[in-house]
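Entry type: protein chain
Record version: 2
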Amino acid sequence: MEAKNKIARLLNNLREKNPLVHHITNYVTVNDCANITLAIGGAPVMADDINEVRDMVTLASALVINIGTLNSRTVESMLVAGQRANELGIPVILDPVGAGATPYRTDIARIVMENVKLAVIRGNLSEIKTLYGVNTLTKGVDSSEDISAKSDALIEAKNLAKSFARKLNTVIAITGAVDIITDGERMFTVENGHKIMSKITGTGCMCTSLIGSFLGVSEDYALAALAGIAAMGISGEIAYESLSSLEGTGTLKCRIIDTIYNLNEDTIMKRGRINEE
């Protein structure tokens, strides 16, 4: 209950402050990330040219780095923007999309981790395992494995996340059927969402943008990660429940953004399935 109250207050704070969230992200989901940032109450900017990223991140309250569609030009921009954000105390979140799928992609994620102090790393289980150094299988940019609420795999994933968070002094957020968020001390799990969300390109990227928006108004990075993940899961559930028999994933994506826009304290308190250990 306390965590949900904190999330609700943070949501109100976000909408009052309208933080600028600088994205260096991928061209598959860039429009979705911009729109969901607007819906939650943030102000997105999607600047990735090396000639302006230092200046742009200086104006921002948070920086989102997403490696979904990698190229050498934007990698340089990610590092320059990330290091400038560190100089200014601006929180940075990394979404290591598809880490483990190719050596290049994995190497770039690790280079970012080594050269930029990260407030949060959000990925699926395969991506986080890869970055931690555990052999795993990745299917394209999607996770090849998941965890259920009652399984030994959940305990293993929690322990891995906590160890990784302590090693990097950051927040590790693993999203899936059960979401795991930890700063190495506190441990949260979230059981909101619906499996149909995996049928839409970009739900993970949009979740990262939500976390980035909350990071823009909170010094508690674990709470910001929890807020973004819970908001996405709750909205996905509500969006799915609203579908008619003739509607599908196209409508679902629009409904998720609508539900984020209309998210409020009452909905968070009624729908949030959050556990703290």
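Comment: The longest strand covers residues 20-24.
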